[in-house]
Please model this.
Amino acid sequence: MKTFDIHKVRADFPLLKREVNGKPLVYLDNGATTQKPQSVIDAIIHYYSDMNSNVHRGVHYLSQISTDAFEVTRRKVKDFINAAEEVEVIITKGTTDSINLVAQCYGKAFIGEGDEIIISAMEHHSNIVPWQMLCDEKGCVLKVIPMDERGMLDMEAYAKLFSDRTKIVSVTYVSNALGTINPVEEIISVAHKHDVPVLLDAAQAVQHIAVDVQKLDVDFLVFSGHKMYAPTGVGVLYGKAKWLNAMPPYQGGGDMIKDVSFEKTTYNELPFKFEAGTPNIEAGICLAAAIDYINEIGIDNIKAYEDELLAYATAKLGEIEGVRIVGTADKKSSVLSFVVDGVHPYDIGVILDKQGIAVRTGHHCAQPIMDQFEIPGTVRASLAMYNTKEDVDAFIAGLERALNMLR
Ligand SMILES: Cc1ncc(COP(=O)(O)O)c(C=O)c1O
Model:
C-alpha cells in the first residue's frame, strides 16, 4: 500500500504557497472548488503549447492527438468509477450540466403528467431546480425525502414515498452543506425493488470516497472536474447504456449527429449523442491528469487522511463556546458547517479572510436546508487532501479572534 506523505502532497499545489492579506493562505473552501496540482497545470500548458486543436473532426495530426487525449480521459473516467463500458461516460460541463441533461432527456423519454420524482431535503439547487423545471413543463410532481435534525435522511419515510407513478430518484451522495454521507446502497436497492432508476449527485463524493458504479448498481452518477483537482468547465455523466440508449438527446449540433438533411437528422451513437458542440477540450483532457493524481495518492489513503482531519477539526470546533455544528450525521465527509449564537456567518467569513483563511459562508446553494434549520446560512470549512492539522489550528485560532471581535 502506498503511504500518504502530506508534505509531498502540499508541495504539489503551487497556489498553497501564496499569501492572502499578508498571511499564509489557509484554503478551506474545497467544497466550492479545489486547487490544482502542478501535474494538472502542466497538462493545461502542454495542451495549449503542443496540441491545441478541435476534437472528433479533423484528419490532421493535431486534431488526431487531441482527440486521442480526450478519449484517454473517457477511458480513465471509466476505470476511475469502474463503469462497464466507455460509452457510458458522457463528458459534460459539470454536475449541473449533467443533471440538467438527465432531467431533460430521461424526462422526455419516461416522465409524463402526474408522474413522480423523488429527491431529498438536502439537495444542492442543481439537483432541485432541473427537476422543478421538468415538473413545470410536464405536470409531474416532486417528492422530498425528509431529514432529521442531525442531517440524516429518514429512510422509513423514503420507502413510503414510492408509488406506481415514481419514475426516478435523484439524491446527493454527500451533502455539500452538511457533509452527510447518505446510505446510497440502501437508497438504490429500495428504488430498484420498485424498478425505479437512481441518479447520484457525486459532486462531493468522488474526490473523497472510492466510487464503483457497478458495485453500487447506480443508474446515473454525476460529478464536476473542478472539485476533484481538474480544471473548471468539465464534468461527467455516467449512465447505464440501457438508459442512455433509450433517451433522446436534448441539445442539437455538431458531434451528436450521424446524418443531417433538411428533411431528417439521425443521431450519433453513444457517447457522442449527448455531446453536442465543441467541448471544453483542454479541461476534458486535463481531467485525466487529475484522475492520475488521485490514483497516484490512492483514494483510500485520501479518505483515511481526510477522515482523521475531519475528526480533529470537529473536536476542536466543538470546544469553542457558542458554536453549533450543523450536520452531525454518523457518517460524514470533509465538510464542517457551523453557526455561532448571535453572530452572522458572513461577518465571520470576512474576518477569517482578513487572516488569510478562506471559508465559504451563506446557504451553499442549498436554501431548503437552511430553511429547515431556521438559519440564514452557515460558515463552511471544507477539507481536501492537502489540508493539515496546522490549517485547522490556524482556522480555529482565526475563528476565536473573529468571535472576540464580534461578540
Ligand atoms: C452536491 C453538489 N451538487 C452539485 C453541485 C454543482 O456543481 P457545479 O457547479 O460544478 O455544476 C455542487 C457544487 O457545489 C455540489 O456541491
Observations:
- DSSP finds 14 helices and 17 strands in the chain.
- The radius of gyration is 22 Å.
